[in-house]
DNA sequence: CTCCAAAGGTATGTCTGCGAGCCATTGGCT
DNA sequence: AGCCAATGGCTCGCAGACATACCTTTGGAG
């Protein structure tokens, strides 16, 4: 029997129980900036349907987010669950053992997404969306940078037209962000990052897959080496 | 709220119940050739631990595979569950709606894997493994080609050293194979495929990431256009 | 020849998660 | 002022999944 491939195929079928995975997803949507501070999450009934989980489980997950001061709920029509304006610091460090794993997958997915996006003929709405996200990221403060940055990268994945690729990028970014939250974010990094973003988006809008791939690769390799430097000490 | 990214983040948290996902995994390990005909699956207790699922659930899944003539079980020490020499035809066609989705993700993952593999310094065992898989694929019959082909592609993902990437490739190949099983496999395709495999592996062993990526891209684009041709009628 | 380790086969009690229904609250609409 | 639609809050019974324990079969080791 092929020995090593088994590790991948016989890995656990579920990352956790339904409750934990639901918390994870809602957390992702907030941390990645898909639902911004002040905005409302979908209703509990809606979330239950979309996430394929019972409403009871959704409520338990939301309760957990409330207790950790991520969201607040209001009853009544036009009520709902709203993301707090001020979000808690991220959870304490997890294990860094899979640093190589995270960075390898991220590089593959995101350079591939950039290349694919550049190879498609984008509609005006998509082009506007990309420029808007770029603008948001470049004008953001240090505090909200990680969220705006993620939104931009997610937007790139979205315009590939592949839901599975978008989901994979979201997952991968979440894992990477958990690590990035433990290294300092400095103004010079941010400026450098913005410049790279502009090159990536420009290449995509120009329809130059090779350039988009390379620009994205350089962008990612920057933060990757930062990470390796800080965490491998 | 960012409208489109929600589709990815608020997708169902689980693909099915524990039983269904377990069947899926075991099926994958057989269809992708990770456990070849005549070989033995890990013991039920072992599988239960690795898959993070109860032994009862594992047994139900194995029972399902028995009923579909994929495996047979024998009791006693040195017994176990063995993959049948003659495997059933694949399940009836599913929906082809996500053809673009499957092909996009596959291209990103596998070209990325090839490039990453070529960028690493491989040990002698890894190099031998790759050559062995290549040899197996090139000398295989039509009947066993899909399995040997998958093993080769999985082996490439494995030598990236990223378990997450390997798992993603396995998942993606499984989805692609479901589609490929519904188009004819002809001798000329096979010969062409083998030639492309050789170029991919040669580039990886030579440590030329760009060439590996390009060779893999051409290889995948070949079957992709075949698929699009047959299924979009 | 006997023993026994390792594998599949079976049974039971517990707990998680689900479905479905109902209640309580709220703010716009009439 | 009253209505009511949409939202969060709550409860209860059932089905799925789990952990654990024990039984049965088998073939090599001693």
UniProtKB/TrEMBL annotation, chains A, B:
Task: Cite the GO molecular-function annotations of the record.
Answer: DNA binding; DNA-binding transcription factor activity
- Which keywords fit this entry according to its UniProt record? DNA-binding, Transcription, Transcription regulation
Q: Where is the HTH gntR-type domain?
A: 16-86
Q: What is this protein called?
A: DNA-binding transcriptional regulator, FadR family
């Amino acid at each position: 029997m092929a020995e090593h491939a088994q590790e991948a195929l016989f890995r656990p079928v579920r990352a956790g129980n339904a409750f934990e995975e639901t918390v994870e997803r809602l957390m992702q949507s907030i941390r990645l900036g898909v639902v911004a501070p002040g905005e409302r999450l979908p209703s509990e009934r809606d979330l239950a349907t979309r996430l394929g989980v019972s409403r009871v489980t959704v409520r338990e997950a939301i309760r957990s987010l409330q207790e950790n001061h991520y969201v607040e709920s209001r009853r009544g029509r036009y009520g709902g669950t709203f993301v707090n304006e001020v979000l808690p610091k991220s959870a304490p460090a997890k294990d860094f053992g899979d640093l190589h794993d995270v960075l390898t997958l991220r590089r593959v997915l995101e350079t591939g997404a950039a290349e694919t996006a550049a190879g498609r003929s984008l509609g005006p709405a998509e082009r506007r969306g990309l420029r808007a996200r770029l603008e948001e990221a470049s004008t953001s403060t240090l505090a909200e940078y990680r969220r705006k940055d993620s939104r931009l990268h997610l937007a790139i994945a979205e315009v590939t037209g592949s839901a599975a690729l978008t989901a994979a990028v979201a997952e991968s970014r979440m894992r990477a962000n958990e690590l990035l939250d433990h290294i300092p974010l400095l103004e010079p990094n941010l400026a450098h990052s913005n410049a790279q973003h502009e090159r990536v988006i420009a290449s995509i809008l120009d329809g130059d897959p090779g350039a988009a791939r390379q620009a994205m690769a350089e962008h990612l390799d920057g933060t990757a080496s930062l990470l390796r430097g800080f965490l491998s000490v």
